[in-house]
């Protein structure tokens, strides 16, 4: 998400809108039309973003239940819910798992995505078809991806992936049923699905690098690796920071694979933050606790967006 | 000398294509596995799993899984739900956010500056962190278990408003002023002049909105109570976590729900790739 654009334009906007206003006389009907045009989207944003967000903050300090308990009213519990997040083993696991998942997915996507982008950045016949093929998993819904890959990760000797690994002497693994491997399997699915998209974004950045620089590098006797490290990477910095942050934020939202395949198991090894807040709020009816998790999740995403804003504005 | 270098060039081009094809296999094989398995019997799928035959049709090939999915599992009921929700959601998403983007980008009015900052601030809030209490709002508005509950809450989307705002801000103001001089209203300008000039950004929002609506799992899980309004991802999850698991039927269901999107993608490749790459949004 281009939240970096968003944050940055807060600072540049003032100047621009002032100059706009000067150049234009306010005419009748403009204000009325403007408010009329804003009203439907604004109403929707108010009802389904702003109010829920405020409710999350408010409820996070209470013991509110989704289904009210008879004879017990909602009470203010201070920071009790937040303390529960930091003192609870399952919650701690959810945050650690989500972090681990990001640590598996993000570097893989950054490295393989960049390599793939350089790899398809050539003017040869048919290259566009290959780009489209690499991109195509992006249009397959995550639920489908998860279900299909769960068959690929079938345990036992005759499982699809196990059979092929068997050819090179790797013993059969139990994959999604093994608490040490399940999160890795879930990460592989996500990498497979979104690698092509990140490749295309990086490719967009690559095509802005002028050909003359590579020509100059060639004349100076740079090797391919040197050209990559000293020309491509520095000039690709902003694109890579964008991919880094947007992929990180997207991985933190892990839910679908967990909900479809593992329900957080085995042994809580795939419980993610979003799955935790879904389960706490919706299944266990602890709306206050779930809201507190949502607020912590929001703060984490906010901090990452701010870091991105800082990294991108630094020239 | 010359012929050697030409030959060497041919070999390196051939190697490049070979590498392209090997990488393409990594992306295509899982999808191929899904489509191929959907026409096999369950026993055949299990038997073929340990060899390369997993990726080619073998054994008794039939459309039995598909007829079971359409008959017994009632695929088209869920398909209809997904299509109704997508049409309702995507058409409102494209138009309503565009209207607000136009007002913020081109019109001048009091409170505009504040409103832009407000939308930008909201764009940073991830949907997941408001979802449980969005459910509470939907509950109080009596929107649970209905098409309205599925499609409406995600209509106003700060990121799309921002995308449109940026687009309209970049439009020449002379266009607006000339139309006003010609006696056009601000309302008319939007529908007659601005929308026809905004096809690329509209298709971007429509494609991203469609991918989001078609694949969403979390919100439909919260708002639907029973099968009546279940969308495709939810129905596939229900099918794959059932007591009795029919492999072929799951593959057939997954294939049927992927095929329409894949066909649209193949037809509009360029727009799809550009739109999704523009923002890196995930469904």
From TrEMBL, chain A:
Gene3D superfamilies: MetI-like. It is found in: Cell membrane. This is Binding-protein-dependent transport systems inner membrane component. The lineage of its organism: Bacteria, Pseudomonadati, Spirochaetota, Spirochaetia, Spirochaetales. PROSITE patterns: ABC_TM1 (PS50928). GO terms for cellular component: plasma membrane. The chain crosses the membrane at residues 32-59, 100-120, 132-152, 181-206, 227-245, 287-307. SUPFAM superfamilies: MetI-like (SSF161098). GO terms for biological process: transmembrane transport. Residues 95-308 form the ABC transmembrane type-1 domain. It comes from Sediminispirochaeta smaragdinae (strain DSM 11293 / JCM 15392 / SEBR 4228) (Spirochaeta smaragdinae).
From TrEMBL, chain B:
Residues 79-268 form the ABC transmembrane type-1 domain. It is found in: Cell membrane. GO terms for cellular component: plasma membrane. Pfam families: BPD_transp_1 (PF00528). Its main location: membrane. It is a multi-pass membrane protein. It comes from the Bacteria. Keywords: Cell membrane, Membrane, Transmembrane, Transmembrane helix, Transport. The chain crosses the membrane at residues 12-36, 83-107, 114-132, 144-165, 243-268. GO terms for biological process: transmembrane transport. The keyword Transport applies. Belongs to the binding-protein-dependent transport system permease family. This is sn-glycerol-3-phosphate transport system permease protein UgpE.
